[in-house]
Write a structure and sequence with these properties.
Strand order of the largest sheet: 1-2-3-4-5
Radius of gyration: 14 Å
Distance between the termini: 30 Å
Helix content: 10-25%
Number of domains: 1
Number of helices: 4
Strand content: 25-35%
Structural class: alpha+beta
């Protein structure tokens, strides 16, 4: 099992290519992400619990896949980045949609 590795924002963003393709409905499981996810210390991310996989996005080149898992924080998703070529987990990053898209008027709340 890969040890959890929190990706800095710059490294996380380097795994993007536009347009990312939504493959949520068609993605096949390359590897079991749940042992990795279970080893993440959620309190270090400021979240209490995780929900199900909400989305899966893939780079047009097909190198990286982002598995987005819902969290107990409003508008925050845990992204697990998979290196498809190496068939390994590169790391994880907490995506705060309020910050990323400059959403104002809403605050983070627990669900």
């Amino acid at each position: 099992m890969d040890l959890p590795r929190r990706l800095p924002k710059e490294e996380y963003l380097a795994t993007f290519s536009y347009p990312m393709e939504d493959v949520t409905e068609t993605a096949e499981e390359l590897l079991d992400i749940w042992p990795y996810v279970d080893a993440i210390k959620l309190d270090e991310l400021g979240i209490e619990k995780l929900n199900d996989v909400h989305y899966v996005y893939r780079q047009p080149e097909g190198h990286y896949e982002h598995v987005l898992i819902g969290t107990s924080r409003f508008n925050s998703l845990l992204a697990i980045v998979i290196d498809r070529k190496a068939r390994t987990i590169l790391g994880h990053h907490l995506v705060d949609l309020n910050k990323e898209f400059n959403v104002s008027g809403g605050h983070l709340r627990e669900v």
